C-alpha cells in the first residue's frame, strides 16, 4: 500500500471503531433461549412499567429499529384497553411473579388487596398447584404459548 492508501485504511478503521455497529448490535440482541415449550425468547428485553403512556409508542418503535424483539408491557396493555382486556389473540409468555391468589379488587389494584394489617390478602383455599394447572389450561386453549413462574 502507498502511504496515502495506508492512512485512508487507518482512518476507516478509526471511524469503524467510533461508529455504532448496528448490524452487530441487532445480532447480539437477537440471542435467545429456548423455553421448555419449544418457543424461543430473546434474552434482552425492554420493560415499560411506570413509563408515561405517551412515551411508550416512540420508545418501542425505536427499540424495534435497533433490534429489540422482547417487550414486557402487560401492565400497560391493560391501561390502554377500554374493556380491561389485553387486545391480543394470544400471549407469547404468561409469567407470574408471585403465584398466589389474592382477593380480587380489579385490574392493576394489587395494593388495594392488602388486608387491614397491611399484609397481602391471600386466598389460602387456592393452591399453587391449582394456579399452575389453570396456567396450563391457558396453553391448551391457545391463549398463551408459554408459561412461567418467576
From TrEMBL:
Q: Which Pfam families match?
A: Aldo_ket_red
Q: Where is the NADP-dependent oxidoreductase domain?
A: 84-149
Q: Where is the composition biased (Basic and acidic residues)?
A: 1-18
Task: State the signal peptide span.
Answer: none
Q: Which Gene3D superfamilies match?
A: NADP-dependent oxidoreductase domain
Entry keywords, A to Z: NADP, Oxidoreductase
Q: Does the keyword NADP apply?
A: yes
Q: Where is this region: Disordered?
A: 1-25
Q: Which GO terms describe its molecular function?
A: oxidoreductase activity, acting on the CH-OH group of donors, NAD or NADP as acceptor
Q: Which domain of life is it from?
A: Eukaryota
- Fetch the PANTHER family from UniProt: 2,5-DIKETO-D-GLUCONIC ACID REDUCTASE (PTHR43827), NADP-DEPENDENT OXIDOREDUCTASE DOMAIN-CONTAINING PROTEIN (PTHR43827:SF3)
Query: What family is this?
Result: Belongs to the aldo/keto reductase family.
Tell me the protein's name: NADP-dependent oxidoreductase domain-containing protein
Amino acid at each position: 500500500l502507498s502511504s496515502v492508501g495506508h492512512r485512508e485504511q487507518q482512518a476507516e478503521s478509526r471511524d469503524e471503531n467510533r461508529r455504532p455497529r448496528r448490524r452487530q448490535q441487532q445480532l447480539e440482541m437477537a440471542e435467545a433461549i429456548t423455553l421448555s415449550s419449544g418457543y424461543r425468547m430473546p434474552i434482552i428485553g425492554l420493560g415499560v412499567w411506570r413509563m408515561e403512556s405517551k412515551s411508550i409508542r416512540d420508545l418501542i418503535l425505536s427499540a424495534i429499529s435497533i433490534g429489540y424483539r422482547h417487550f414486557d408491557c402487560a401492565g400497560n396493555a391493560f391501561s390502554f384497553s377500554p374493556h380491561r382486556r389485553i387486545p391480543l389473540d394470544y400471549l407469547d409468555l404468561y409469567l407470574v411473579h408471585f403465584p398466589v391468589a389474592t382477593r380480587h379488587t380489579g385490574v392493576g389494584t394489587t395494593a388495594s388487596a392488602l388486608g387491614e394489617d397491611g399484609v397481602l390478602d391471600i386466598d389460602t383455599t387456592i393452591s399453587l398447584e391449582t394456579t399452575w394447572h389453570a396456567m396450563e389450561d391457558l396453553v391448551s386453549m391457545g391463549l398463551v404459548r408459554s408459561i412461567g413462574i418467576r
